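User: Show me a protein chain along with its predicted structure.
Assistant: Here is one chain, sequence first, then structure tokens.
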Amino acid sequence: MPNQVLTIDPQNELKFKVDFSGLFEQGYTTHMRLTNPSSDTVLFKIKTTAPKKYCVRPNSGVLEPNSKVDIAITPQPVYLDPNEKHKHKFMVQSVIAPEGRTNIDQVWKEISPDQLMDYKLKCVFETPRVSNLNDSGDNAAQNEVTKKRAAATEDAKVPKVAVEQNFLSLPQKPEEDDVSSSIGANKTFTVFKHDNLESDLQKATSEVLLLREEESKLRHENLQLKEELLRLHQKVGEGRVRRHSYTPDKNAQATLIPWIAIAIGMAFLGIIIGKFLM
């Protein structure tokens, strides 16, 4: 395997920031610079042992002679497993581009392993205090912080029994008595109002029935009056008094008009009350 033709900066380590819980710091990006000092065109690829935890841009490309490129490596917002922190590594893989070949993907497929140039870098994880998680001192500091957080959480807890006792011992607020009294008064008023409404409906129903009876009597009397007028008309005809149209005398008209008016008024009153109840 030939030696790596590219110049890589940093040379041995890629540093990433994590907090004490092992979560990658959001927005923190590590940069790696690749430089091609040769007179040949070089193809490169960036590979890692944990591809799901890092975003590499660009992860492949072409470097012309005496050119360079910056690689941005951004950790994903995930937790770093302590058992895997020694396994995270990156590898820069490169190859001299064959002359006249423009299909880069085809070149990577056809290249033989002995033509590839590899260069590996290990990952180093730093806490906010810029200390290495691989050291035992950091583990002790992390344990101390965890103990302090647990103690603070325990002090903040309040026994459930004490809370229930304090709640039961609290006197009832005067506002609650006022609300209860108001509710009781509203219920009594509602029942009283409901009873009055039923009584009024019963009275109105009785009055309507009476009015209908009066209306029936008036209609019966009106029919009797019409029959009487018809008999008078027949008698006048027998007396050879011929008229083109029946016209009662003035005394009969004066007697009939009040009864007809009363009958019509009672009929309208009964209809209006009936519609109100329906």
